[in-house]
What we know:
By secondary structure, this protein is mainly α. It is built from 12 helices and 3 strands; from the N terminus they run βββαααααααααααα. Helix 5 crosses helix 7 (205-219).
Amino acid sequence: MDYTRSATDRKETVEPSVEQTECPECRSTSVVEDVTRGERVCGGCGLVLSAHRIDTGAEWRAFSAEESDARSRVGAPVRYTVHDKGLSTVIDWRDRDTSGRKLSPTRRSEIYRLRKWQIRSRVHSSMDRNLAQAMSELERLSSQLGIPSPIRELAALLYRKSIIKKLVRGRSIEAMVAATLYAACRIRLKPRPLDEVADASRVDKKKLGQCYRLLLRSLTIKIPLSNPIDYISRFASELSLSSPVQLRTVEILQRSRDIGLTIGRDPLGLAAAAIYVASIMLDERRTQRAIAEVARVTEVTVRNRYKEMVRKLGINSMGLGGQS
DNA sequence: AAGACGAAAGTGGTTGA
DNA sequence: TCAACAACTTTCGTCTT
Length: 324
């Protein structure tokens, strides 16, 4: 029997790293993976983005289909959303092998040693229990919020890190799960309003915010400031607005940023106001209330932001309600 | 009657002494 | 650690479409 089989024998299909796949030279997002050379190369300009990556393919050659099957590596892909990463081996207490025979004395002492270590690592079993609970909560939360699985996996990875750093101790699992999910969404530039995440879980906004900030400090992850533009496609589709409106909204936000209208302002309020203005300009008007609702801000905020935009961007406001 | 407006008071988080 | 502060929310009365 082979007791040494471990994660290194398995294909790593999940990409756990947090880095962006955009070429710093030409801004192209087409990145070519060259697994045999262990490099990632920009498809636009050929710049090598990272080298010395691990080749996850087989390290032997196969000359026929059957051979390829026989020699391929085995095991399910490692997944971070499964609490034990899909790897689990339990050493039985009986001194018998799988066919029920007694073990030889040397084998027996070897097994004894392994068993001892498994018991010693009980720490891990409490961690496992925590993880199992956390992962089912993560599953529930993200399906309720409609979070795609790559982001889930990232959240799961962050959660693992925070367990290792003992951040969960003294805090509720739910709160930490919600915080990691919120963080994962932001890292992948698909931010969700804090309120939305808080509502979907049983955690209040304050606790969620605290956990999130803790996460940032302790894991030292770089998280891009949330950009109002990242909210637009989702909000626009919830309001069933056409794509020209979305484009106009992006334009308005970019101009607002250029004149410093966005600093210190809630990105949600900015997104909402820009959508409001664009919707009126292109004759697909939505009420302040409706927009405020999907953006989870108040009508007052929408109003204040959009008044500023109209005033400072010099949008001549025919039909914009304001004083000519 | 619904939507928009704006004043005033309250809230939670950040900043600087 | 505390007070000042800016941004945002809540609430409410009034005006506009």
